[in-house]
Please model this.
Amino acid sequence: MPIYGLIKGALCLFPCTLFLTICVATVSVVLLPVTAFWTYRAVITTAQWGPNIKVIACILLPVFLVLWPCLATLLAALFSLLYCLAVPVKSTFDESENFCYGGIAEVYHAVMCQYPRLFVECLWVRYYEFTEEFRHSRGREVFDVPFYWIFLCPLLSAAGACIALPAACVMTVIKIIPALARAYYFLWCRYCELGQGMMIMFVLLFALANALVPFLVALAAAAFVVFSAGLGATATCAAYNGGAEAGFRRMVTNVYDLDEFSNAVAFQCHSCLPWANFGESAFHTSVTKGII
Model:
């Protein structure tokens, strides 16, 4: 029965994932000018921020606005992949659903009608309401930074991104093949641990998993690179809290964090750059602890 559910999911997987990914990417790009206008208007007119922090936000916002369609598209592809496989399998065990085609119509309706409409509503209605609430909300104190931060903050963010992004690209090129090999090794080990009868029962599931591994690894690698571009802002936060020296230390520690995480995924070991950790890394104790 799980195998038949996955076969039904496979019938939905490619067309639904392709449609939702294209839809989310198109809507994100088409509505990007409107999103940018609402965001800038909220930042400029809010009473919660002072003039200096508004100038900094206006300078840095284009980076996040450019990254937004990429991130939304990646998340849509991952969501559609999981949803298209999970719903048909679930409906196969549901007595109220038709065994032969139950779940297929639900997937097509949700992915091709419901979720694109929901995404448009979130961008067109919910995000507008959020920006309006942010514009008109008033805090007890106005948050602001010194004037020189108008020049220092973009420089620190850009420098941090210029260090983290190339480092993430190089790490991805070096480690994507070992990560792919480890994913296949993990999959085959789990499959071989099954009994002979279970291996025969799940052979189609195993074949489908083998076909999906490269796609999932590539998707994770793309998300890793996109995420690294936003790490420049962490250097700015560190500099704000601890001074310029702390900001530069954070830039170097970001490289350590990226190496620590990618090594944990690809090689199940810690970073090869222990000298780059200035004691500010959160990956060693939180993220990689559950991987290594």
Q: What stands out?
A: The two ends are 34 Å apart (CA to CA). The chain is about 80% helix and 0% strand. The mean pLDDT is 79. Residues 145-292 form one domain.
